[in-house]
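Weekly modeling sync, notes
Attendees: S.R. (lead), two postdocs, one rotation student

Agenda item 3: backlog of single-chain predictions. S.R. asked that every request posted to the team notebook include the full sequence so nobody has to chase files. The rotation student volunteered to paste the first one in as an example of the format we agreed on. Action items at the bottom.

Example entry:
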Amino acid sequence: MDKFLEHASEAFTSPLTNPVLVFIVVLFIILISPIILRPIKIPGIIGFILLGVLIGPHGLNWLAKMDGHTGDMTGVDGIDLFSTIGLLYIMFIAGLELDMNEFQKTKNKSLLFGFLTFAFPICIGFPVSYFLLGYDLLPSVLIASMFATHTLVAYPIVTSYGISKNEVVAVTIGGTILTDTAVLVVLAVIKGLSQGQIGMDFWLTLGISLAVFIAIMFGVIPRVAKWFFAKVQGEQTSHYIFVLTVVFVAAFLAELAGLEHIIGAFIAGLALNKLIPPSSALMNRIEFIGNALFIPFFLISVGMIVNLGVLFSGTWALIIVVALAAVSILGKFLAAFVTQLVFKYTNNERNLMHGLSNAHAAATLAVILVGHDIGIVDESMLNGAVALILISCLFASLLTEKASKKVVLEGHQDNSDAGHVQAHEEKILIPIANLNNMEPIIDFATLVKSKKSPYPLHILSVVENNQQAAKNINLARKNLDKMAKYASGSETELDLITTIDYNIANGIGHTSKNLFADGIILGWPSATSFIEKIVGEKAESILNRTDTTLFMCRLDIPLLTHRSIIVFSPPFSESEVGFEFWMEKILKLALELSLPLKFVCTKRTEYAVMELMEEMKSNTSASFLEYHDWNNIFGLTKFSTDEDLLVFISARYGDVSYRDSLDGLAKRVGRYYKKQNLILIYPARRASIHIDAYEDVKTAPIFRKISREIGNMFNKE
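Predicted structure, as returned to the notebook:
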């Protein structure tokens, strides 16, 4: 017993040195970080860095960076290895996901914006670093070049608003390629200068080695990759290993050429850009493994370097943070402003460029870490750079969301993204949750389903993957048989599906994608357990795992007893991808039940509804009532009676029409309207597109409703 206690005490001594224990701690952080931080909307990139600070040498001291001088082979050096891979992975994915076709179309405008977004931050940042902050020449140039970089962390926002094909977005993406590449080349020169290697030989060697490197990466690698992918078919594992090999070979070749290894990884992404389609299985594997393991390791290791105590050590540390944030915002604004004047963009398009180009993340970390490693940047600047990442990411996402909304109002939404479901191709999925309320849901689905669709209603039962799975799957099939017997009464054809998955939301998400379902019809969300409230309630989990239109129905009263259908449609709901689909379903429901429609909305939504009804040649009676205080959902009660069927249009987090007041809408309206039938609709959205999953910065204020989230966690209902 004493020996066991001694061994345990030794294993848990801070900092941890047991390789297995170190790995467990890091994996546990990767596991719990999204669960803890998602409810309060802290971006992934910030969350991992903060947790790295917490467990690092300047926090709880659970983990410590390996001593490079002693080379002690403990489990901790695995963090350095994995974090290096993560850094290369970030740069590789950034190059891989850039749209080269859009860059070709707008290359001249991108060249100008790329030059301006590189030049202005450096021209402002250098004197601030040199004269105001008192850094020497080389550190000042390095810090100034850090301002020139930007990472498109706010790109998912423009995608969700349907303006990703807007010209200014393409110009900004092109500018990203140019400014980040230029900064990384400047970084190589600074590193050479700091080591006293700059001379004619340096420039000659750099020029020749860079030419050879570019020739190999864009002349040889694409041809070899194309041959390999063609010859080795069906071997997805081999394809992934090949890509990973290319990344590390490119990183090594870049170092031989006198450049930073991150340049090699970025160039590797550009070289393989056209050979790996964004929706391919290979791209999915690349992103999944990187986002699940390597990139979090890198972000955690960055946090371990940071000493937040330095930021609060005095006014000087705060001056550094304020100076960095001011230079960052001003430099990027001037670049967007001059580009606006030259190409006559609107103010909202200028703000969109400013927002997209203002976030500092991966490239900024790369630059400042290299400067710190070679000893020309001190700890105060390293900590200031991490603070800059936090500030710039939040500022960029808020500005991008605001500008995106206004660009949509100007009518610049992408028409090609407005998906219309053809009636003869419609597929509807109905997951079984509670057998007691399934009959009215099937009745509702039968009423709204397109009669032109040859597909049956797909009824799904998800069995959790546990020891009782085999037994439960037989029970699920019996339940499905009961549904089939009920549906046969209305001659409704059903497709009965049973699937095994780790949880219900996952099973619904996978089945929806496999079926290409156009709509999902669910029962009303029921009370959840304490654990479900922490990890994520089922209804919210289903929303997060699907992109299609989702109907939540509480149909306790026969539909034929209603006198009218009232649709509460918030501002911008007409700009959602699924607008046409849910409108078709509501119009069909009103027609089947012979009920008039009343829309409570804004004038803009009213015009869109009237236009769509005219286009569909609908003769359903419709009236409109204006409402503007959409932050007060309970103000809608004055528009309805107990005899009305109430339809609430909501939105998934981050969608065009989303607002804070829509949080927990099902619970709130369910409590208030206890005697009425309710339908809650979440329109379809565009599939999430990320430059990097850990840089998907959400747009809501970071401290939005923290108290309410904590309250919900302990709410019995």
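Discussion: group reviewed the output briefly. The CA atoms of residues 290 and 515 lie 28 Å apart.
Action items: rotation student to repeat for the remaining queue; S.R. to check formatting next week.
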